[in-house]
Amino acid sequence: MAPGSVTGRIHSWDLSTGVDGPGTRFVLFTSGCPLRCLYCANPDTWHMRDGREATVDEVMAEIDKYRDFLVTAGGGVTLTGGEPLLQPAFTAAVLRRCKEAGLHTALDTSGFLGARATNTLLADTDLVLLDIKSFDVPTYRKLTGGALAPTLNFATRLDGLGKRVWIRYVLVPGWTDDEDAVDGLAEFLSGLACVERVDILPFHKLGAAKYDALGIPFPLRDAPVPDLALVDRVRGQFRERGLMAH
Fold this sequence. Notes:
The chain has helices at 56-64, 67-72, 88-100, 119-123, 137-144, 149-161, 179-190, 208-214, 228-239, and strands at residues 7-17, 24-30, 52-55, 76-80, 104-109, 127-131, 164-171, 195-202. The protein is of the alpha/beta class. Strand 5, helix 4 (119-123) and strand 6 (127-131) form a beta-alpha-beta unit. Helix 7 (179-190) runs parallel beside helix 9.
């Protein structure tokens, strides 16, 4: 099969600035995810069957429309989801084509399927946005339905490969604000030279309407959003370990 004819299931694409990597990004949302995070804002990306099939050539034709703008804006392409590593061949092919086009690449992943990311795929990835949901094993399981260990193993592997990594941490009161768990994560990350920054993402309910439209319950509908004091406290815990936290 020719590389350009490799197919994947995608949900959508969008342009964004500031939250999905440096500069202005072409963000490709892939379909399918092995986790079921209670705070997920995109439940419409959970199932591959709900996405539309697209070839790498079709995706690149869309990206090419914005290529000059993305380069001028110091941006690039970010693959997110869903979980891009649920479709490793498709993800690898898109990343390769983006690099051939001279575009900066970023991979947004939970790391749960990090073992599926080949070294070749990662060589074509300039930046990994690694979502670590919790550092407490039981909480991680309750929050996502999956295990924490694969993500930590992937982080360690990325460090060994010398990849650039930005950590994303969703702050949910009563779930991911435990001081000891945050301290544990900060200590773990401080030992990884690859980690450039930690982005604290306050929990929000902007995806609630999607749950309603899909006819499924939003598990954290009644959960509070974090106040500024809590966000500052958690940022401070990472900064105390010498990490750049935003």
